[in-house]
Input
Amino acid sequence: MDAVLEVKNIEKYYGNKGNLTKAIDQISFRVEQGEFVGIMGASGSGKTTLLNCISTIDKVSSGAIKVNNMDITTLKGNKLNQFRREELGFIFQDFNLLDTLTAYENIALALSIQKVNSKEIDKKVKSISNRLGIEQILNKYPYQMSGGQKQRVACARAIITEPKLILADEPTGALDSRSSRMLLESFNYLNGDMNATILMVTHDAFTASYAKRILFIKDGKIFNEIRRNEDDRKEFFNKIIDVVTLLGGELSDVI
Amino acid sequence: MLFKLSIKNMKKSIQDYAIYFLTLVLGVGIFYVFNSLDSQKAILELSESTKAIVDLLMTLLGGVSVFVSFILGFLIIYANNFLIKRRKREFGIYMTLGMGKGSISKILVTETLIIGVISLGVGLLLGVFASQFMSIFVAKMFEADMTAYTFAFSSKAAVKTIVYFGIMYLSVLLFNTITISRYKLIDLITAVKQNEKIKIKNPMIAVITFLISVCALGYAYYNVTVKYLDLNETKLMIMIVIGCVSTFLFFWSLSGFLLKMLQGNKRFYLKNLNMFVMRQVNSKINTTVFSMTVICLMLFVTIGVLSTGVSLNESFTENLKKSTPKDICIENMIDGEKQNDKTVKEILEENDFDMSLFLPDYVDATAYETEEITWKQTLSNVKEDLTKQFPMIRWDSKEFIVGISDYNKIARFYGIKTYDLKENEYMVLCTFKSMKEIRDKSLQNGMELRLNGKTYQAKYKECKDGYLNMSQSNTNMGIIVVPDEVIKNDKTLFKASNCFAADYNGTTDKEKAEIEKKVTNFFEQKKIKQCLIDTKLSLYESSRGLSAIVTFIAIYLGIIFLISSAALLALKELSESADNKERYEILRKIGTDQKMINRALFSQIGIFFLIPLLLAAVHSIFGIIFANKMMVTFGEASLLHSILITAAVIVVVYGGYFIATYIESKKIIQN
Output
């Protein structure tokens, strides 16, 4: 299978010569088409920096990131924006929905900025919201929705452009457990039925247990990697807890 | 320490302050320029009579300045509120660090003082230099001699400016302190995260309100332009109130209406960031309806005042040319005293006046009165209208009667229209607008003239233009013209007035002025009191002064209103750009092109600047038509000219503020 994402020996430094901090230190991994990969780590481990570099919001200091065999670290200006809107879909912790727009409009916006024609937009928004079970709230504004609904709208916005890769940054961070579960079920649906490739950053073991493979990051390096294989989610969760314990931090964050 | 903090804050937020500061400087400068008019060299050299006009102008400008300082004071307080709002979080941090509200107030006081002192200084400097240019303009207005130019500085105006603006800044300090003392820490810390609650209106209500407001505006426009004759003071006030209220409703419902309309057009709505821009406008217009209304009305005043004020000067001169066809007109008011029923020419010759001062083609005409023809006879069929319009009317006022050939003689000399009458006909000349309407009605009611046992029919069912004394070219209340036989045969008629018109026997303005001096001296020396003298030169001088006053006040008010409204909009937009930063950040995160974002920002700010201007322009069209009908008839050419000048001023000032706002906002959202 083709690698959707290929990260090769990337490094990210902060600060100057005298006081250098390595946020990412020689990380390499691949994500295949149709995978659901979780990245775990304590705060300060470098996981958000990693995601920012992949999403081109931040730039790496060295190394290469290839999406669909294209090195995105060399992209600039409008090419970068074009890459971001055509190849990537984003789901953020705080939803990042526009509060002035209705759910329908928020989803449609992702296509509008790609200059898709209006009939197509309408069709696509309706079909995606149908699949994610949000047709009832299409005409509501973000402040009229619950957190879970907002995040599912954000999902719809991320997936509607049919991106190569969906990047999710702490998607359950602002949700209660019930909404989290519903959202993660949606992720499973996106990954399983729609064959979307998802890369999700989280420090929550429960959230991570929905992924098929998990990379653990500590001090800017990959510390461990586990695969779900044929385990059910419960067993996978326990395995994750084991690694987290080994990592030695933030147990309080796990439960 | 606090002082250092203030300085640092200001350096940091110099971008936020730039437009505010610029507006203050402009305000101070303009204030100084108009209050220092009288100290300018050009004005110091004026003749006594124009000096009196300048004194009047200064008194009026003083009054207007108080009004202007209220407007600017309001603007400054409003602007300050914006700036404070933006810094809520900063104050929150100070407070969590244990700084008291008193200290925060002190920081603000220091900042206000620094800005106040600097803006006053720079503004005064600007004003002093601008007033030098102003003096050229002034000299042109009053046709003064500009050869002896010196640099002028008015310490009186400078002190006045400092005192007025000092009071304004002090009131800002007071307001700021009150605002700060009201804040709660929790509000300050969470200030950034709190989005304004978006009130959602039922789109149908918006559409209906919009239609109502448009209809109401149309109704008001119709009443002040087409039906302006039916207007009285109360009705006019009602129309103004309707105009203001429907302007408010227009803005209240406009975005909802547009949104509804555009949402229907999916192809437009879902194209690029159109949807986002529309929603931005919609979300903000809800919270800015009131300021939009104020801005629109201020712009309306600006456009109306500037264009009519500028054209007033031109049309005055134009009208004057029309209404003063000859150099001098002397009228002997005989007023029934038989012993003094001489013509002007007879009086002049009797007193050994040198008739060669006049060109030999001079003419005169005599008007008669009779006890038989008073207003009671001619106007009692329109009694109600007349008493409504002129409550102090005297019904026994006698009508002026003139023979047709006498009238035609003087009319030909003036170059105005002449008429023919048959032996049983009469006609009425009247140029005074409100009187003409009443007389027209009376003529339509079939008014007949009964003189010496004979009845005369009106030749025309309306009054015609015409006058005997050229000073009455616009104020002739009514002259009845009859066939010459009437004058010859009717023994009840007696001479009431003799009007004499002539040109001076001179070619240059200087020669004419000398002759005029000789003529007026003659009448003074011989103590001939019953004669009224009107000359072209004196009419010119007095009306030029009057129009200069109106023009100055118009420009003063117009420019202050213009910069106030533009600054208000600019500051509001800037403070909102800061709030919108997050929204634009989201757009960027989902991969929108910078170009597209810039275009969206441009249209968003453009819409906010354009909408009040457009409505104000529509208001002004009808406002100018109204002013044109009610007060002075502007020549079309001069009106077009002044509208072009006004448009240019607005494009430069308002457009300048727009561009500055766009550039600043772009910086804010990109940071």
User: Anything to note?
Assistant: Chain A touches chain B through 34 residues (CB under 8 Å).
